[in-house]
């Protein structure tokens, strides 16, 4: 089955540090990947849609200069939280949709990254 | 504002009990609804894709129904087992021009006691 690998699983770092999270589709090509964030007791919220070879589309209220997304290949998207602060502490999870797959088909998720900023 | 609501927030049942929970979503401009099962420390796993009003889908002891006119979907688990313990998420597909996005509910956390 389709597998998405997300790394790292857990990050603890000091305020002001930039953190990069990787999302890889291991056995399929993904033109489109999605980045979500989940705060405690809340639902998964879409942050941005990452398209291979083009700029990401950010949701309203998500700062594109704060959350840099790069989707340089059909199997890898990265999210960089720049100059992270404690309020950026959250659970970040990516998902991918295979190239050519109909839009109503389910997405394949990574395991998520727990980010804690001290 | 597009809201997807799930109830209850959490549910504790005894092994062997049957259970069900609800996902409510906007009834206008319906495209599709997903159900996912999310076990702790794992990735969400797709259970069902619901597209047509009146859809009923089944996978083993788990089934789901869809009413797009009134904007709800039910997930049923027959004879719950401890391995069914997980958070069950529903996600409404919002289509915009050539793109789409998933709007998630906050999930129902199910704990099945042996």
Account of the 3D structure:
The complex is a heterodimer of chains A (118) and B (114). Chain A is mainly beta. Helix content of chain A is 0%, strand content 50%. In chain A, strands 2, 4, 5, 6, 9, 10 and 11 form a 7-stranded mixed sheet that branches. Chain A has a 4-stranded antiparallel sheet with strand order 1-3-8-7, with no helix packed on it. Chain A is globular and about 40 Å long. Chain A starts with a strand and ends with a strand. Chain B is mainly β and 114 residues long. Chain B is 0% helix and 57% strand. Chain B contains no helices and 11 strands. Chain B starts with a strand and ends with a strand. The model of chain B has no long low-confidence stretch (mean pLDDT 94). Chains A and B meet through β5 and β10 of A and β5, β9 and β10 of B.
What structural class is derived from the secondary structure elements of chain B? mainly beta
Largest sheet of chain B: 6 strands, mixed
Q: What are the segments of chain B in which pLDDT stays under 50 over at least 5 consecutive residues?
A: none
Radius of gyration of chain A: 14 Å
Helix residue percentage of chain B: under 10%
Topology pattern of chain B, helix = H, strand = E: EEEEEEEEEEE
What is the straight-line distance between the termini of chain A?
Answer: 38 Å
Main interface: chain pair and counts: A-B, 24 and 25 residues
Characterize the largest beta sheet of chain A: strand count, sense, and whether it forms a barrel. Answer: 7 strands, mixed
Shape of chain A: globular
Q: Please give the alpha-carbon distance between the first and last residues of chain B.
A: 41 Å
What do the pLDDT scores of chain A average to?
Answer: 92
Q: What is the count of β-strands of chain B?
A: 11
Number of DSSP strand runs of chain A: 11
